[in-house]
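ENTRY TYPE: protein
CONTENTS: sequence, structure tokens:
***
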Amino acid sequence: MTFQFAPAKREQVSLLIALAGASGSGKTFSALRLARGMSPDGKIAFIDTEARRGLHYAEQFDFLHSDMRPPFAPVRFIEGIKAAEAAGAEVVIIDSFSHEYDGVGGIMDWADRLASEGVKSPGNWKEPKGAHKKLMNALLQCRASIIFCLRADEKIEILRENNKTVVRPLGWMPICEKRFMFEMTASFTLTPDRPGIPHFDLPHKLQQQHRSMFSDREPIGEESGRLLAEWAAGGSASPAPTPSPVAAGDAEELTAAEWDVELGEAAKQGNVSLVAMWEKIPREHKATLKAALDRRHKVTAAEADKAKETA
């Protein structure tokens, strides 16, 4: 095969969007609003693993529906996505994709069954992980955009400090294979106290070119979907980024969520930039942001420094 090269041009890029949250956080409704903005003509397919609950929204949205029942093996999701594409879908919603991980016939269930048959760890994970990788390859090759709804749990860790048992909250964590979220174009965590509104101080992925398309003050809606679709088609739907309030001298007016965004951008430049930004944050916000600093931003900064070393 002969390789052929052409000038790089962004056009007809598919998107992978993840919405994670507990019950009542607005995942399904937000996914449908986002999809309607991305495909106003209604070329939306809904793969429903939640006992046909997606049909609760049939009168509010125009979409094709498929009732997916167990087993929730990775190959079933590949089949569903291919069928959705064949039906002409521009956007596919999977609700809930968490079943691929911990549902009946999902990869955890698969690994547990092999363990019960005498396959010792980590050997019992070989086949499930292999099937999951094939699914990820299929997702990355999909020409339709996909919106994943995922359940999330509040996680804790129990430690011993100074001879005392300490319970440390780890925040909301999506229920999925641990590397899944890294493959997303964008991801958000939603909570029941603010349905549909993304939390920028909870785990999320939002690249610079998409930041102006979402707000942590308003629910995810059709306008975000429209802007994403225009960007994916090659347009410049995103307006020019607003200058950083830190650079503009308005640092004292930033909320904790806005400081989290500033930390994320600084982390992309490496640890030195991250430390410098952390020193600018008012003391009253540091306690709120400490978990995000340790869990996400330090990892990003380390990866940025490593990339510089190998460049």
Notes: DSSP finds ten helices and seven strands in the chain.
